Amino acid sequence: MSRTDDRLDLTPRPEPGVLRAFSLAVVVHLLLAAALTWGVNWTNSDPAISFEAELWSNVRQEAAPALQAPPAPAPEPVPVPVPVPVPILKPTPPPPPPAKVETLPDPDIALAQEKLRKQKDAEAKKKALALAEKQEKARKEKELAEAKAKAAAQAKVEAQKLAAQKLAAQKIREAQQAEEAKKQAAADAKFRQDNMARMNAQLGATGAPDAKGSALQSSGPSASYGGKVRARVRPNVIFTDDIVGNPVAEVEVRTTLDGTITSQRLLKSSGNKAWDDAVITAIIRTATLPRDTDGRVPTPLIISFRPKD
Predict the structure, then answer these.
(1) What is the arithmetic mean of pLDDT over 101-106?
(2) Could you tell me which residues are beta bridge partners of residue 252?
(3) What is the DSSP string of the chain?
(4) How far apart are CA 270 and CA 244, in angstroms?
(5) Exposure string (b/e) for 16-46, b if CB count within 10 Å is 16 or more?
(6) pLDDT tens digits for 185-242?
(7) For the CA atoms of 259, 260, 262, 266, what is the dihedral angle to 10 degrees?
(8) What is the C-alpha to C-alpha distance for residues 182 and 193, in angstroms, rounded to an integer?
(9) β-strands 301-305, 261-268: how paired?
């Protein structure tokens, strides 16, 4: 660097605000000079007096050299930029959280919080106790209901067993009563039969010694009476249809004492309606039945008819 630069570097730096203070001082002095001048002119001015004066310096003085600006320094050579490798920036870890500053609690606040905590604890205990009591009550009610249901089921089973036992006993009694009634009825029938046989014997019954009837004489058709009846009815049967097989039709016939037919009823059909109708019509046409060997006409009488007999 040049010497001028060294001198300028050694020169003390001007204080800030000096230029403004200097300007203000110049303005103030000019105002003061103007005020003085105006005051002198105002007191001593005389329009009749007028003079001029010129002042000349008898001693020759040389003026000081003007202040020259220092020559501009020569430009320094511009250095060639050297490429600088760009460093790889790693992520900066976040700053740790500020430490929690523990503040001392206010005594009133602490007391209020403690009171609130105790109140909450008391309410929680009260709720827990109420819940426990409710659960215990529900458990007891459930056990009581289960016990009642079990007792009712047991009572129902016992009632069913008792009813079954009563029913079995009643059936046994009924069976015994039926058996006793049957025995009694048989005994009564035998007693009546014995009495009737003894009475008939006393009145002159005509039955054999080993006969089991109770009438004075045997009744019913003889072995040949059926052939007599069929021989009487057969000519009145009018049937010309062809029939498969030889089906039988049974007819119940009722008569008076002299053999007059009063009614006829088909007991068993032959399966052929034409043959059944022919048999009923033949009985109606017959009108009367012949007497048996004993001179009587048995009634009612069941007669069987076959188309191919």
Answers:
(1) 57
(2) 265, 302
(3) --HHHHHHHHSPPPPTTHHHHHHHHHHHHHHHHHHHHHHHHHHH--TT---------SS--PPPPPPPPPPPPPPPPPPPPPPPPPP-PPPPPPPPPPPPPP-PPPHHHHHHHHHHHHHHHHHHHHHHHHHHHHHHHHHHHHHHHHHHHHHHHHHHHHHHHHHHHHHHHHHHHHHHHHHHHHHHHHHHHHHHHHHHHHHHHHHT--S-TT----SSS--S--TTHHHHHHHHHGGG----S--SS---EEEEEEE-TT-BEEEEEEEE--S-HHHHHHHHHHHHHH-B----TTS---SSEEEEE-TT-
(4) 11
(5) eeeeeeeeeeeeeeeeeeeeeeeeeeeeeee
(6) 988 888 888 777 777 666 544 455 555 555 544 556 777 887 888 888 888 888 888 8
(7) 60
(8) 16
(9) unpaired
Query: At residue 219, what is the residue type?
Result: S
Amino acid at 251: V
Which amino acid does the sequence have at 210?
D
